[in-house]
Amino acid sequence: MAKIHNLGFPRIGKNRELKRALEAYWSNQCSEKELNREVAALREQQLSALESLDFAQVGDFSLYDHVLDMSFLLGNVPDRAGTSEHELDRYFRIARGRASAQDCCATHAGEMTKWFDTNYHYIVPEFSSTTRFELQADSLLQQIRDARGLGFEVKPVLIGPLTYLHLGKVTDDSQKLDLLDDLLTQYSQLLARLNKAGVQWVQIDEPALVTELNAQWQMAYKYAYQRLSDSPVNVLLTTYFGELAGNLDLVCSLPVEGVHIDAVRAQHEVDILAERLDASQVLSVGIVDGRNVWRTDLAQALTLLRPIAQRKGEKLWVAPSCSLLHCPVDVNAETDIHPEIKPWLAFAEQKLEELAILKLALNKQPNSHAPLDDELTIALAENARVIEARQRSLLANNADVQERVAKVDVSWLARNSNYATRIQAQRAILKLPPFPTTTIGSFPQTQAIRSVRRRFLSGAMDERAYHQALEGVIQETIQQQEAIGLDVLVHGEPERNDMVEYFAPFLNGMLTTQYGWVQSYGSRCVKPPIIYGDVSRKGSMTTRWIEYAQSLTSKPVKGMLTGPVTLLNWSFVRNDQTREATAKQLALAVREEVAELEAAGTRIIQIDEAALREGLPLKSSEWQAYLHWAVDAFRLCASGVADTTQIHTHMCYSQFNDILPDIQRMDADVITIETSRSQMKLLEAFKRFQYRNDIGPGVYDIHSPNVPQIESIQRLIETAACSIPRERLWINPDCGLKTRAWAEVLPALQNMVQAARALRNNSVDLEEEELTLID
Ligand code: GLN
Ligand code: ZN
What we know:
The protein is globular and about 80 Å long. Helix 21 runs parallel beside helix 22. Strands 1-12-11-10-9-8-6-2 form an eight-stranded parallel sheet. By secondary structure, the protein is an alpha/beta fold. The protein binds glutamine and zinc ion. The site of zinc ion has 6 residues, from loops. Glutamine binds at residues 440-442, 493, 499, 560, 608, 610, 650, 652, 735-736, 738.
């Protein structure tokens, strides 16, 4: 009898209940008691979705982040959390810098970074030579008791010791692996306590096993799991997000009672594991995709699972590929999804229902003569019908789009001339001063703007009034930028809730949801659009706003688009064609908008690729293949313009060293990037690489409310000028300004423009000096 289980469930709630409760608590609008009550209700709601499973996972819920929970469980809490008796205060201080609005001991929050290749951000554990661990298991044990009390067989979820070390950062020159022994002592104690509490199985997550590990780390895995094998609790070593590849032998050699594998991303390794694991070891097959929103093809899943079930019997467990944290909760909440498309979708709750059907099917005696119309037969037939309908649907398959994509040839991927020629032509037309100043696109998204958008969406405001209201905002934004003295203006993006979601309604093959929230970090969620079919542009997406903004000023206004790779990486994508093919379709759609903007007289067009780096595979050996098609997609959307049209791109991170050849191959005339926090260090890499095109290194950090001083901006630009020739430098903040208030933005941009002016004056002196010398 195969068993079914789950690795983790979304914790934000169907209606983002957790977000509301947390934010009320942080702003002192509710007490800790009320927060706890809300959380208890939410936990019950979540547990009730697990009823059909053989095990309910416990320990995956978190008030902010499960990695931070692990740090607290292990007693690895930075001193700056304070010594207060109040654990929740200490927790929120590291999570977000302060316990609540009136916290007297605010501090700097832990660093946040992406959880593997997902859009979820975790709080980075901090290690140093003085790190000592001390198990604090009471909270976890309480959760176990609570779930038991509701009648569940529980399976606690822990992050494994090596993945925990892998995820952290060392703040001095010590070595992470030096901490392993001490850490394992805590894990051993924890397993002992879990055993005492009656736990049979514990899920130990080691997704670091799908990255490329060197010999030292591989050894450390052997050592660690050997040490933990003394425990009477059964360990399910859980891997996900990719193939084990070079770590497959290692995993097979570890003395654990079970292994979970991601059967979506590492399908061909499932059979290998089934063969190589001991008869006594459990194989957990993650067949239901935890990273996407599609219904599982149950017939196909059963073809894979049946032979394993025969071989392994009750040692076969079936599960989602990874935690369902990365999925929305319930597709049944959606009321606006096209009725033909909705049945194709499965969110977290539906995925667990699929597991229940799989279990029924696997455990049915092959020769039993159950009546044909039993529940299972109906469910499987319904699934087969839905899968087939999706394959045949004209909403998913558009012959026109496929034909157009097939016609793309390499000449579409290159501009007419090289950068050196183009930039001359652009300079002649744009006539910008040296060190041109600009911004990244968005201006403050005020309450007023949000409320206008909300009223329009809900039908409370008609289109005319909506357009008028937004035009009013754009007018003000242009006036402000002129008053500040910026050289290249933007319309400010007041029409956009989000740089990806905004575009979905203008594209065939893409839809947005009402409640499809996925946790990004803490109480913050994103609502990724769903790409369900061949993508093409329905019509104009941005031009009316850019044209309007341009009509108000003689300075150039930048057209503002999101690039194909970012549209792809921040959406749920089709699983019936490659990401590369979808990226190409998106690129063609964006290319059409670029052409329309150019025809409307836009001289500068920015195509943001904020998420290009995010798409990098977890294994560096796979990077080149990705970068090849991703950069091609950018080139495809950006190359259809005349030499005189200037293409900008923006990327808001500071790690470029390892992908500079690819950034160069994008061949944007101007790239704006984040550098202010690293004091322009990054530019040295651009210099070493001899990057050829224009660069706008962000001169101040928009994530901070502090207003940058003229001198500090000037210093940064001067540092930048050591690496990049002055004539190729642009001056701009390091990202969009939508999260800031006008009161912060105005003085910051004024200082930025002042700094640029001061530098121009210095440069004029320099040029004159040079001239005299030549004389
Ligand atoms: N143009 C976008 C903005 O300014 C870019 C956002 C981003 O890079 N994340 O908001
Ligand atoms: Zn940015």
